[in-house]
């Protein structure tokens, strides 16, 4: 029985060759790093997404982050809550479907917009609150790549309202509160997280990190299918 991933790889041999060739270039050029054997594929895929070697060093992991992410994926049916639609669109539907993962984002919902206007907050804040009201945050993978206010609100929900995501991939990009929001997340001990220090980030990096976690989960799944 083969141990190669089939669901979370490129679907053609040509595509696989290009992707694996890119990873080989990154491995050859990256230099030294302090990431574990399971953290590195995540960072490498993030570098691949942006051709930016700065993510070697800027990317930080809660000690339980990778294990928690893989466990949440393998559990099956785990919700993935995003701050913006771009993350949901960027994720591979077949890869998510293999693990029964459904995506959720509420940034453009009429009720979210109305609450944001009435309470003078951002839509991202209200979207996180809606996800919590709907019971979607507990046990979820939460991906935040655009809105620092979403990550700040999520930290508040963890501290003040007991929200307990399985994993937070907190990578909002920007110049206002982006670095600060990730620093806040990195102080959280109750919930595992993956963050990027500083201003850099973005939805493409969240997508890359989640795809890497899906690949790690499939590898673990296939290992479990091997005969004794």
UniProtKB/TrEMBL annotation:
Lineage, uppermost ranks: Bacteria, Pseudomonadati, Pseudomonadota, Betaproteobacteria, Burkholderiales
Alphabetically ordered keywords of this record: Cobalamin biosynthesis, Isomerase
Family: Belongs to the CobH/CbiC family.
Annotated ranges, domain Cobalamin biosynthesis precorrin-8X methylmutase CobH/CbiC: 18-215
GO biological process: cobalamin biosynthetic process
Organism field: Ottowia testudinis
Functional pathway: Cofactor biosynthesis; adenosylcobalamin biosynthesis
GO molecular function: precorrin-8X methylmutase activity
PANTHER family according to UniProt: COBALT-PRECORRIN-8 METHYLMUTASE (PTHR43588)
Name of the protein: Precorrin-8X methylmutase
């Amino acid at each position: 029985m083969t141990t190669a991933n089939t669901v979370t790889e490129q679907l053609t041999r040509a595509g696989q060759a290009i992707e694996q060739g890119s990873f080989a270039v990154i491995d050859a050029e990256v230099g030294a790093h302090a990431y574990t054997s399971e953290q590195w594929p995540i960072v490498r895929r993030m570098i691949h997404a942006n051709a930016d070697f700065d993510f070697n060093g800027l990317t930080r992991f809660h000690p339980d982050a990778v294990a928690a992410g893989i466990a949440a994926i393998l559990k099956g049916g785990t919700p993935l809550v995003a701050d913006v639609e771009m993350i949901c669109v960027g994720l591979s539907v077949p890869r998510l479907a293999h693990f029964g993962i459904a995506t959720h984002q509420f940034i453009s919902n009429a009720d979210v917009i109305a609450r944001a206007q009435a309470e003078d907050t951002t839509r991202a804040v209200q979207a996180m609150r809606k996800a919590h009201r709907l019971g979607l945050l507990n046990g979820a993978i939460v991906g935040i790549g655009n809105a620092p206010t979403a990550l700040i609100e999520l930290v508040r929900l963890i501290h003040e309202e007991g929200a307990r995501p399985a994993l937070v991939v907190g990578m909002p990009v920007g110049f206002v509160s982006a670095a600060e929001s990730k620093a806040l997340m990195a102080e959280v001990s109750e919930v595992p997280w993956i963050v990027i220090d500083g201003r850099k980030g973005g939805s493409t990096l969240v997508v890359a990190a989640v795809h890497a976690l899906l690949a790690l989960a499939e590898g673990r799944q296939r290992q479990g299918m091997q005969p004794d």
